[in-house]
Amino acid sequence: MRTEIDSMGTMEVPENALYGASTQRAVLNFPVSGHCMPALFIRSCGLLKYACAQANLALGRLDAEKAKAISIAALEIYEGKHTEHFPVDVFQTGSGTSTNMNVNEVIANRCSQLSGQPIGSKIPVHPNDDCNLGQSSNDTMPTALHLSTAAALQQQLRPALVQLSKALAQKERTFNKVVKIGRTHLMDATPITLGQEFSGYLRQVKKGIARVDHAILTLKELAIGGTAVGTGINGHPDFAQAVISILNEKTQLHFIEAKNHFEAQAGRDDCVEVAGQLQAISASLTKIANDIRLLGSGPRCGLGELQLPATQPGSSIMPGKVNPVMCEMLVQACLYANGQCQTVAACGRDGHFELNVTIPLIAYSLHEAIQVLARGTTLFTERCVAGLQVNEDAIADNLANSLMLVTALNPHIGYDKASHVAKRAFAEGRSLREIVLEEKLMSPKALDKALNPKKMV
């Protein structure tokens, strides 16, 4: 252990830790869940501290030596290094001050290492005076939240949905001529092609991609520059613009300064909106996974219209059983993501006066939802959708046995007579064709033409 000093006195810190007294206090104060802040959130903090150092250098508030040292250390964090030195639990101070100071201390101590000074000496860089210059946890943590969430949407979820859309588009083309029975209310309905059915799934996913793009735009306003309560106290008037310009160069995500810094720090409505978009995507993916699971039910006593890839044994007691495990995995991932988004919505209400005090939990929940949805979607695409095959015999049998083909007879014999035919066919276990011909409602030629399923799609 080594002894460090902060505003509350001395604190024993692990000898090799790059963090300092403030972080160690948080470690001791918040041993709650064992869940640390998301890796991409910490990386985004590193990028933000780099941009702040460069902005302060350009504005003449930080000398070149300190700015260079901070920039080197901050970019190391952005590159994913030193992750073991960010131990603070998610359930901490609601502003994220502990994490902000964790980042400041790691940067300062890394600067000491690089300059040959002892860790904890605060030479040549001070964690508050230099790393946090012109900043507050109250504007840096909301900024890192938007930065990291937008990056996660762009880098993780969007590519996963694009990959799924391509797989579904390929299946739509392959299945386009396969005529099958449609279903509404889980009951037989009029015919549809399997390609048409999959085109609906494809459109859902494409809308999901558009929702991701909209969510990224929703996060474009950054709180940096507001410092403690949104007034910008101790900050340079051009600081926010300078920082955001640098961030845009690095991320290509086109952020802008918050139009109102008081809203940007007191409210988390943008994150609640993003959570809503993620819930819509979760709903779409759940519907697709469940439909494919049901269409593949059987193999002999279910619908059996699709053959799902076999990925693992389905039962510890029933030999040869294979289950739709990838569909079930994705449904569970969506349920989990939906729960995380519900948490974000609840967190959004806790913006009391000038600051929302649930920022670490919002960050954790959004990143969990995005990561699980992205990974679940990727696996579902690769191990289920890509290998889907058609069971043409089952589709043909279901189509031939459907009573709802009678719908095509409405224009010829009317709704009431068509209803009578369907009910009689069902009650007697006979075909529609037999009943119509027996009751002499249509000629055989006209009936065959009307009951052709390929003419109904």
UniProtKB/TrEMBL annotation:
Catalytic reactions of this protein: (S)-malate = fumarate + H2O
Domain (Fumarate lyase N-terminal): residue spans on this chain: 9-335
Gene that this sequence comes from: fumC
UniProt domain Fumarase C C-terminal: residue ranges: 405-457
Class of this enzyme: lyase
Places the protein is found: Cytoplasm
Site positions per UniProt: Important for catalytic activity: 328
The protein, known as: Fumarate hydratase class II
